[in-house]
Amino acid sequence: IGFWFPSLNLGFIGQFxxxxxxxxxxxxxxxxxxxxxxxxxxxxxxxxxxTDSMNSVDLFSSHSPPFSLAKLxxxxxxxxxxxxxxxxxxxxxxxxxxxxxxxLSRNREEVVRTYHPTIxxxxxxxx
Length: 127
Known about the structure:
Elements: E1 2-5, E2 10-14, H1 24-41, E3 46-51, H2 54-62, H3 70-82, E4 87-92, H4 99-105, H5 109-115, E5 120-124
Parallel strand pairs: 2-5, 3-4
Antiparallel strand pairs: 1-2
Helix pairs in contact: 1-3, 4-5
């Protein structure tokens, strides 16, 4: 999984394997969770996350996770309860406009650097 902060020119690539078979909905939602964690750790109070996954947008707006995402969604809820000052919004961005996050999620650093040669890329493992 991967995510980035365009205003900071900062990208992240997850250094772990998702269980096989990979459920893209789980992967996209995990990316939202990790971006949220970073935003909170950086001290942001208003966090807007963009994803090309309408399923993830629906999940975070409906608050009604499918069974496969119940644990992940519970983690997000507990994190937001612990940080009540944080306002989270998850919005949709068309896939063709999400090429940097897509390249990061595929560990394609060379593609990212084609568009943003000075981007700082960090690798992370889930807590």
